[in-house]
Input
Amino acid sequence: MDVRLKRRRASPNRTVEGDLSAGPAAAALDQAEKLKLGELDGHLGYFLRRLQIAVFKDFIRTLAPMDVRPAQYSVLLLIEANPGRSQAAIGQALDIERARLARLLHVLEGRGWIERRAADGDGRSHSLYLTRGGEKALVRIKALAARHEAWLADALGSKRRLLLMDLLKEFG
Amino acid sequence: MDVRLKRRRASPNRTVEGDLSAGPAAAALDQAEKLKLGELDGHLGYFLRRLQIAVFKDFIRTLAPMDVRPAQYSVLLLIEANPGRSQAAIGQALDIERARLARLLHVLEGRGWIERRAADGDGRSHSLYLTRGGEKALVRIKALAARHEAWLADALGSKRRLLLMDLLKEFG
Output
């Protein structure tokens, strides 16, 4: 498994090494182009974003055989755990804006993985369910997602991954 | 200061409360619509993304008086800390794709905050500098960014913010 997150010691003159998930060629360029972080070094959002991007890149790469992106995966898991709930509830839980969720659900429906049924008594509202095909696809998707998560545990160290998870969950 | 991140205890049947930065109306809807997280609960990327979104929302809200977004702010700080470096170096350090960076720099140039000078001996390469106006704007921008960071320390707790920062920096 390709572990591309680079562990670095904290230092008073931190520099930034570019794309966390870039390959050897980019790493060589980094060497020539090291930049000072300046006041970015004091912003949690910057470091959150960097790790989040690296993690999403690996997820997308690992899930490529099933062509599933992080938001699609989240929606599939939430529908699985909450069959029959509304589009609005799923969108709100994941903080996905209405139009974007509609497009995303359209794609999942087109692949035969989910179905939308009109909710009783409200023509505008739809309840979401996995199809039999969706359940079968999800078995393969979860196996790839587990591989991604194992990569992450390897890249961060299992203990650090859990510590980070605990800290983030307190506010999740 | 409006602290909207909700601290929650870990529990075996975790639910998800929707947009971390949503207001009271959304919170009321959440109450009616609580969803189970299902296997999302085991994915670090999900929790990273949630906090990152909440942090970026507050940043955008707090920086609204200067109409500055996170990526613009990062670029301004990197140019400040590394005057004269190339567009390619800045883009790579921040993992911003070439076309998007070009648009972003165009906006900053239009506001009179940065200038691009052709680098010696290479007509295709540009060196980036803050203008005098950019330096002045950055004083006000940093004051707002400090307010955002204070909100975050308040929302997460100072110690937890630092712990999270340390963990993230090890891989940054």
User: Anything to note?
Assistant: Helices of chain B lie at 24-33, 44-62, 70-81, 87-94, 98-110, 132-156, 158-169. The CA atoms of residues 66 and 74 of chain B lie 14 Å apart.
